[in-house]
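FORM 7B: Structural annotation worksheet

SECTION A. Query
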Amino acid sequence: MAGRKSKYSKENENQKNLLKVAVYVRLSVEDGVNDDESSSITNQKKLVTEYLKGLNNVEIYDYYVDDGYTGTNFKRPEFNRMIGDIKDKKVNAVAVKDLSRLGRNHIQLGNYLENIFPLLNVKVISVNENQGKTNILEICESVNNSFYTNIKNLLNEEYSRDISQKVKSVIKTKREKGKCSYGLCAYGYLKDPNDIGHLIVDKKVSDIVKRIFNLYISGTSLNGIATILNKENILAPTVYRNPKLAIKKIGWELPTIKLILRNEVYCGDLIQGKFKKASYKDKSIIRLPKEQWHIKENSHEAIITRDVFNKAQEILDKNPCGVNKQKRINIYMKVLKCYDCKKAMRKKTLINIHNGKEYQYIYFRCSSYTVSKKFCSRHQINVKTLDKVVLESVKFQISLVLEVGKAIKEIKKARLNSTFVSSVQKQMEELIKKRDKAEFLKKKIYEDFKLNNINLEVYKNMKEEYEKEIIELNEKIDALKLQNEEEIKILNNTDWIKVFEENRNIEELDRSVIETLIKTIYVYKRGKISIVFKYEDEYNKVINYIKERSNEDDKK
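SECTION B. Predicted structure
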């Protein structure tokens, strides 16, 4: 005779079946974000929270809010934080107002709903699709209705596509009429309050634009112009538009000056459509050829004459970025940065004459500090010292990667051996045996029940236990399959090792080596440096894998 379940066993069962819910809310630009509608984030929270209050055995773990992020991709900070909490077993259910909040990309969202979430044993609760329902199993199963879900996801994706096309059409029409289609005006201009597509001169700062051009064509360097403006406490464009940013100590810099000098808008021309987004799903930027640009000459009042603009272009073309007066290429361009402010390090040359001989001292200094001491502290390093340290570090990193390459070859050889069985495969085989045994016993108790060897209550209890065991074993088997696939992926992804192998005999640095092997070089105070090499993720994955294998071998 089966005994009654105690109060504690019921509490334990309830705790085991408790759904710890991540409430995910999202509002994007294509949904019409503005000051009035930002409250819809609040409305989403309220709607989902109220709905969950009516369900049993549900507890809200946390709220995850992506305000202003598109649903056409999954590059969203709060969504990724939620996935992290799911992987850490902090969350086992996700609740949303509707499925479009999770995403509008049909294929990617389908992958989450049909593969990733089920694999992680995560339930999905969509409020709008389940109004009036209180049975949690029925609610979660509705999302797993693949036909309904696929149709819904396709409609959500089509909505994004439609909005994208309408926005493009409006922008194209504006450009064809010679109207300004972008939201932020160039420094020195404002939107005409009577015609938002027309630019008018900002009298407060137009003289500064004129001064920048005049200083440059009269011989002042880009850094020199930035230094002059910062000494006179003239607000940089970013701070001028948003004074609250003044606390971040943003000043005039070389790239800002160069951007102004290159902008045709200052001689009265409106040039638009230089870039476009890859698609409504992919937000990466593509530069278009000049023949596809929208150019409207003399569309607004000029701040400087064409002659002055053309003279500035001639000087800029003669001294392109990255080449110094001796025409030596800066091999560290876009790689060497100040550790504190993360701005570029600028190459400087100091010439001294002693006893009739000329001596050059070439060094790199923080560009922010060069412009003004108030923007950063002194970070400086001698070129000879830098070259020596970087070359030694590159050689050492190559030697490490080559050792990793050898280890991978040995592991791959072992795996090709017909007698080799990895620990993952062994675990999988053991779990499959246990699952097959549980399935056999489940069938056996059914036969016993049919033969009246056990009663209905015993049969139900035993059947439930075996089914739970089978589910748990299948989850573990699936997880090991993923682990095995990841191992194979690590072992087969060796292209990055070849990149280092090709430079194994390096004796001198050049631009090609720096671009190929190094992501960033940070310069600290007192000339210390740290190097971030490319392919660090791949390197660390292999190292961790080798360590795990070594630990397994030690246990044998």
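SECTION C. Observations
Residues 32-39, 145-156, 278-283, 322-327 have pLDDT under 50 and may be disordered. The chain is about 50% helix and 15% strand.

SECTION D. Sign-off
Analyst initials: ____
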